[in-house]
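Hello Y.,

Per our agreement to keep a running log of every chain we model this quarter, I'm adding this entry. I've kept the format consistent with earlier entries: sequence first, then predicted structure.
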Amino acid sequence: MKAPVAGEQSSQIITTAELFPDGAAIEQLRGNQLLLWQGGQQQVASTVEYCGRSYAPATLGPHLEQALRLPTNTEECGSTDQLVADLRQELTAVGLDKDASLEVAIGIVANWVAGSVPGPLVINFWGAAGSETALLDLMGCVCRRPLRLAQPPVHELAMLPAGLAPTLILNRPSERALARLFATVSDPHTYLLSGGHVVHVNSPIVVSTSKPVLAIPALIVPLLPATQPQRRITNSEAQSIANSFQGRLLRYRLTQHLKVANSQFDVAGLCPDIRIVARVLGTAVDDSPGLQASMIDALRSFDEQYKAEQWQAPAAAVLETLLLLCHSKRPAAYVREITEVSNTLLENRGESVELSPRAVGEILRQELGLVARRHTLGYELGLDVDTQRRIHRHAVAGDVLQRIADCPRCQETVVAIPMENEATSGM
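Predicted structure for the entry above:
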């Protein structure tokens, strides 16, 4: 935002929300009111003044305002641990287990500071149809500005008032529509053209699908089949739940957004997608090391399963082959050699997949960023120092590195990983 020049008459700014670098914030409330939070105090009015500028609320139609469940005010939120515990109680009542209720409860808190966390916030419930009904109803009560849609029309979302950033709650949308939406919200530098203006759709997403969504890092929550009658959240109960949490969660946003934005929390050793999810969740509860530790424990089982699945994948076999070649001190290897060894590894693991040299070439280029050069006897991959470093980094990320004592690249990773943990972990 451009700072006002001394003596300049500033025009009124229409907004639905603002976060300022000094910790102040503006939030639109129900009834076309704005709340200004500054210095630990709040002011509610039809217009508010901040740093010499006047802010007015965007005009929202009555149906949109009702759908978004805008709070009427804020309430004391209590400690972060208590807020998460209260959310977990509601989530357990609609069928989530211990770990899932913890992850989703922290995800709901992160939802309220989504503009300050270091990545996109996507919660993906998956399972048999009908198992998600009460859970989505609950998420529509506790998420910030929930907007339930059958399909996500990206360009129409871009026409919503600036800063609205509703939480999009989607129940089994088409894969094509979901892919278009992910392509927009997953990159903070991706914009849309709407009405001659450049806009960014920056919305958290809660989506229910039949299978896990893997196109973007997401908190993936498997649901149990609905073997018993589903609990129904009535309209009156939904309003009661919203009244219990919306004001508390809004206070959390106002008081914690700056701390969340400045958090350095990170978890080395997780696979890349799950590490992003851990960073998003961990920064949202930066004032509770206990919740951060419990969240990491809950994610580790999924991380181990993900790595085990990756271990069986063709790319893992190719990567392990490259490590063997590096440790054999080979200066280069032909793609056909890499293919033969990779297929032997896959066969020994009981996999029915057989790779072709072309498939291995695609894995090298598209998944590992390595390019084989054409020579008289075929395509050859040079194994110089930089290439070996890249191979070892991929092996660490995929948890397939088998270190040997006389490999300089292995020694580099032994030194680098503890340093990374010490420098980046908020624990």
